[in-house]
Specification:
5-stranded antiparallel β-sheet, 67 residues, 48% strand, 13% helix, mainly beta
């Protein structure tokens, strides 16, 4: 997995073909995004630090938001 920008993560999260799941454990929160039951991205929040990760080739799962 590699670091991605927040806008890319939000784009993946808004795609109706994707499912997501949230886990909270103390100060750590993880949001995972799946496509066809395969993990494609995750957001990790630890205290005040937020990081976004995605698999290689995640660009193919982005939706076109141009209006």
């Amino acid at each position: 997995m590699k670091l991605i920008m927040r806008t890319e993560f939000d784009n993946l999260r808004k795609n109706p073909l994707h499912d997501y799941q949230s886990d909270i454990n103390g100060d750590k929160q993880v949001i995972k995004i799946y496509r066809n039951e395969r993990l494609i991205a995750k957001k990790i929040t630890l205290k005040k630090s937020i990081r976004y990760f995605a698999v290689k080739g995640f660009e193919q799962f982005l939706i076109d938001e141009s209006d």
